[in-house]
Please model this.
Amino acid sequence: MGSKERIARVKEETRLNILDAALDIVKEEGWNSLSMRKIAEKIEYTAPIIYEYFANKEGILLELTRKGYIILAGEVRAALKKHNDAAEQLEAMWIAYWNFAFKYKELYQLMYGVDMNCCELKKSMPESALVDDLIYEVIEKLIVVENRSEDFVCRKYYTFWSIIHGLISINLVNKGRNEEMNQRILKDAIKGIIKYIND
Model:
C-alpha cells in the first residue's frame, strides 16, 4: 500500500472514530452533553485535530444524521423485499421503521428531533428521502381510487408517519406501554390505515 492510500485510510479511520466517539458520548450522557471537547477527550486527541475533520458540532450531527437515514433505508428496503403483497410490504416496512427507532434510539432522536432540541439538518439531506420514497411507492400500489391526486397519496403517507412516529416518540420519552401492548397498538394502527387507505 502506497503512502497516499495509507494516509487516506488513516484519515477515514480517524473520521469514523470521531463519529463513533460522538455517538458513545450521546448514549452515555444524552445529546445535550455532546461537545467537541468531550469528543477529543474520548478519542485522546486535541480539539484542533477534531476541527480538521469537522468544522463544528453541527458537521458531526449532519454526518450522524446521514448515517441514520442510510441505515434506516437499508432496513426498510430489506423488509420490503421479504414480501410480494403490497399490504404485507407496507406493514413490514413500518415495523422495520419502528424497530430501527429503538435499535438506534440516539440516531432516531437526532433524525427526528425527539426529546432534544431539533436541528434543521433534514431539509438539506437527500438521504432523508430514501425511506419516504420507498414507503410512498408501496402506498401508491394499495390505492385504487381513480383519478387520485398527489395530495391524496401524500395524506395517506403522513397519516401512517404521524401515527408511527407518535408511538415511537411516546415510548422514547418513557411514557409508553409495555412491549407487547406497543406491538399490538402498532399493528392495529398499520392494519387500520391499510384497511381504509382508499377512503
